[in-house]
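Question (not urgent): is this output format expected?
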Amino acid sequence: MLAKRVIPCLDVKLGRVVKGTNFLQLRDAGDPVEVARRYEQEGADELVFLDITASHEERGIMLDVVRRTAEQVFMPLTVGGGIRTLEDIRALLNAGSDKVSINSAACKDPEFVRAAAKRFGNQCIVVNIDPKRVPRPGVERRESRDGGNAGPHLASPASRLPASDCIWEVHINGGRTPTGLEAVAWAKEVEALGAGEIVLTSMDCDGTKDGYDLEITRAVSDAVSIPVVASGGAGKPEHLADAITIGRADAALAASIFHFGEYTIRQTKEIMAGRGVPVRL
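Got this back:
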């Protein structure tokens, strides 16, 4: 079995790494180049940079941060945020990025994914999907302590609607704008358009440290054949193991537990290995 990847995510705003809860309440977590260098030394498999306000603020991509990072860090680097054109992708790849992650632009113009994959290759094109549980039409919003009928292993600890009463709606612009797209159907579509990987970030679980939304992770992983990276909610190494063994993800992305020194990459991988997850130590 191929080794499963552990991927730190650096959300960047105004040139600094930040981390929030449910995409809000951002805290400073350091200089992106310094943080990236530390993660490479600890044994991270890849690194993801997301400029979390570029699309919302309608500004350009952070080429300088990418270039400075690529000069000092040699693990694979994926960059997203503010990508609107094929020229944006070319500029990021030339700056040292290995892959680019598209979210808002893909939802607004799905054919952009096809054009990007055709121009630069499927292996370069990642689509980031940010779903949030919203009530089905006619269903009143209510809290669910046990995750509804999802079962004890699939239900995230996050308080939310039971699966039977909700849909996973895709959001863009840093989680600010609902699209009307359903996450599993959208994942299938972007695979058909040529995306080589999906980063799936649960808005309900993001930053809570209560665990990934394993239900949607498994639903998307089962629906597509391209790699799925679970994101949003990691609070301990066991959560990353769950994303892979229960959620069937190909990789697990985390931020808070690494940024603020709760666990190192090495500690996390050792615990995952102890739970039977093949990782590169």
